[in-house]
Amino acid sequence: MGLPVINLKMIITVHWLLTTWGCLYFWLPPPYIWSNYAVLAIGVWAIAQRDSVDALAMYLIGMVITILLDIIHIAVNYERVADIQIGGTARDQFRFSVGMAILSLLLKPVSCLFVYQMYKERGGDCNINIGFPDLTRSRDRTSYQTIGEQEPHRPPSTSSETKITVPGY
Fold it and tell me: CA-CA distance, 121 to 73, in Å (whole number)?
């Protein structure tokens, strides 16, 4: 059972919306905003060039990097802002903003799986060998010719005038 087909436009739209909502209350630093929107811009490039494997690879790598950066940004900045006494609607806006940033962070690994599936469909190949046997399904290699069944080598034909003698060993 494979992964369902998810459109790249939908993935980018959801992450754009969650990133925007995560920044409603100004509690995250500018590098959070820049890194997430830069990766989303690379995703738009991947949409524009449907056959580009490089665009999807860069988007996938950017998503993985922003997962790590988001963890750091949320962990460092939440305590700093949560300790400040915020009252009324600002408190609710802060909670909503934190919730959307965390939801975006939780959805990124799932999105990475779908983007990796698209990467393989476009012809991308990840040849990282870390010492383990092939963890993915083996490729269908039935269309390849085997090289073990070669015809024996024949000496060149000679005319009747010339005789070649091969010394016996």
Answer: 33
